[in-house]
Specification:
Shape: elongated
Mean pLDDT: 85
Structural class: mainly alpha
Strand order of the largest sheet: 1-2
C-alpha cells in the first residue's frame, strides 16, 4: 500500500493536486473535465484504480460516480510537494556557494530565479552563470 512517504508519479501527483481543488467525475462520464486540466483521459483512467486501492482517492457513489481526495491522499500530496520544495531549496543553497565563489551577482540573478522556480536544475543554473562569465571574460 502506498503511504504518504511513498513516491508519487508525476501523473499521480497532478491528479491528486486537481482532486485537492475539487472532486472530479469519472473520466468516462466527463472526459473534457480531465482534458481541461491537462490530464490524459486514458492514463488517468488507468491510474485511478491504484489510487483508490491505496486509499489516496475514494469513489463517490457507484462505479460511474466521481472521485474525491482522502485525508491520506492529501497527506501524500503535501509530503510530495514538501519533498520537491526541500530539494529546490537545497539546490538554491548549493547555487549560493557558486555565487559566493566570485560570480557577479547580476549574472546570478536570472539563474537563481529559474532555479528557485524549478524551471532549471542546479547544473543548468551553474552552467548558465559559468558560460555567461566566460563570455564576459572573452570580451576583455
Amino acid at each position: 500500500m502506498l503511504v504518504p512517504s511513498g513516491q508519487l508519479s508525476p501523473l499521480q501527483q497532478h491528479l491528486l493536486q486537481e482532486l485537492d481543488l475539487c472532486d472530479l467525475p469519472a473520466p468516462e462520464r466527463a472526459p473534457e473535465t480531465y482534458l481541461a486540466r491537462d490530464l490524459d483521459v486514458e492514463e488517468t483512467r488507468e491510474a485511478l484504480p491504484a489510487l483508490v486501492w491505496s486509499g489516496l482517492v475514494e469513489r463517490q457513489g457507484d462505479d460511474r460516480g466521481g472521485f474525491a481526495l482522502t485525508a491520506l491522499g492529501s497527506a501524500a500530496l503535501h509530503a510530495a510537494e514538501c519533498g520537491e520544495l526541500t530539494a529546490r531549496l537545497s539546490a538554491v543553497a548549493a547555487f549560493a556557494d557558486t555565487v559566493a565563489a566570485g560570480v557577479p551577482p547580476r549574472l546570478a540573478g536570472l539563474a537563481l530565479r529559474r532555479l528557485a522556480e524549478g524551471t532549471w536544475t542546479l547544473e543548468q543554473a551553474k552552467a548558465s552563470v559559468c558560460t555567461t562569465e566566460e563570455l564576459g571574460a572573452d570580451r576583455s
